[in-house]
């Protein structure tokens, strides 16, 4: 495993460790603040390492491909479809339970 891969694995383990510590400790506001700072710094590191560079995310940006009304319409439709599926799922689940 490369040095970059090791750093990514360590960062993921830190995030999982913060989550585990949150459930194991007494959930005070100081603990929440400390774990939030550590988790946010780790997530920021992961975000810059995973989503930077020549990735396919850059090809989706307006800077590289220009503005497109169709892209905006498709994204709005996708978000509405996902939201409606979540709402329908919750309604179906509540009908089954109650």
The number of E-state strands comes to 0
In DSSP terms (H or I, runs of 4 or more residues), the helix count works out at 5
* SSE order: HHHHH
| Integer average pLDDT | 77
Describe this structure in words.
The chain has 98 residues and is an all-alpha fold. The protein contains five helices and no strands. The mean pLDDT is 77.
Which features would summarize this protein structure in a list?
single chain; mainly alpha; 0% strand; flat
Summarize the SSE layout with pairings.
Elements: H1 3-24, H2 29-51, H3 56-59, H4 62-65, H5 69-97
Helix pairs in contact: 1-2
What's a quick, concise take on this entry?
With about 100 residues, the protein is mainly alpha-helical. It contains 5 helices and no strands.
